[in-house]
Amino acid sequence: MDDAAEITRHYERESLVEHLRSALAKSGLGEKQLSARDLAQLDQFHSRGLAATVELAKALPITEATRVVDIGSGLGGPSRYLAETYGCTVHGVDLSQSFVEAATFLAERSGLGGKVTYQRGNALSLPFPADAFDLAWTQHVAMNISDRAALYGETCRVLRSGGHFAIFDVIAASNEPLHFPVPWASVPESSFLVTADEMRTVLAKEGFRITSWTDCTEAGISWFLEREAERKQSSTPPLLALGTVMGPEFGQATVNLRRNLSEGRAALIQAICEKV
Predict the structure, then answer these.
(1) What pLDDT score was predicted for residue 2?
(2) Cα separation of 225 and 245, whole Å?
(3) Which structural domain range is residue 93 located in?
(4) What is the pLDDT at residue 87?
(5) Is residue 272 a contact partner of residue 185, using CB atoms and an 8 Å limit?
(6) What is the CA radius of gyration of the chain?
């Protein structure tokens, strides 16, 4: 299977900018300049939402001068949070053209057009020169990529020596198969989880030293259970939420991810690595 083609098929959405423009208006945000918290339910496309982004950022030495590449930038929530909070510049890369256009639209609405940029590109062939960045950032990206060595090797290439690689991903926790669909894949053929040991081994081979490794699984389970309880209490789904972008199947996909975590089939890890 062509990973890039399958990823694009899973995430691509027609008229996404117009859909978001309408949802913002109906939510009462109109032409208001948006903040990271205004969009947190919509554009943080990973377990634990904005909280996971905040925690990952706090584990890193980010300043106004930091040059960041967000690999698999999605709707741009993490990149805009970094730019808004730390004043750094962030370049996002994503396979989905509709997500690139939506992220650019939301950056303009957030007043961050001068700090964040987005372009379509492949994580296995990043459109940047070597040593271009101080920090590479990925949240829930590698699960869609079968060639983990190529992903980590290309990330290492665009980082300067001593630069950091920040990761928040789902990994395999046992040999038991996942319940599908999950947020990143409708079928097993487009999901590529690795174990913690496998991930550590590939990172080391591709030029990284792991400086921090945190299991976030229990926090993730609690977060999903809280979201499920909120949905049951609400008579109507929120207008600015990932389900409005990803469609009706997304609710079951998130329930399945929580179930996979609870049953020990998958786990959540936060890792900080340094280019050696």
Answers:
(1) 61
(2) 21
(3) 3-275
(4) 97
(5) no
(6) 18
Distance set, CA 203 to CA 72, 175, 200, 245 (Å):
18, 21, 5, 32
Average pLDDT over residues 122-147: 97
Instruction: State how beta strands 67-71 and 133-139 pair.
Output: parallel
Helix (H) or strand (E) holding 257: helix 249-262
- What size, in residues, is the chain? 276
pLDDT of 243 strictly over 90: no
Distances (CA, A) of 226 to 14, 26, 189: 31, 25, 30
Which CATH number characterizes residue 249's domain?
3.40.50.150
Distance of CA 216 to CAs 48, 61, 177, 178, Å?
A: 9, 21, 20, 18
Domain count across the chain: 1
pTM over 0.90: yes
Q: Which residues pair with 85 in a beta bridge?
A: none
Tell me how far CA of residue 83 lies from CA of 36, 68, 207, in angstroms. Answer: 10, 9, 27
pLDDT average, residue stretch 22-48? 91
Residues 6+ apart with CB under 8 A from 236: none
Answer whether residue 47 shows pLDDT above 80: yes
Q: Distance (Å, rounded) from C-alpha 174 to C-alpha 263?
A: 10
Burial (CB count <10 Å: 0-12, 13-18, 19+), residue 203? buried
Closest CA to 130 of 156, 150, 148: 156
What single-letter amino acid sits at 143? M
Are 45 and 77 spatial neighbours (Cβ–Cβ below 8 Å)? yes
Could you tell me the two tokens for 94?
């994503």
How far apart CA 51 and CA 46 sit, in angstroms, is 10
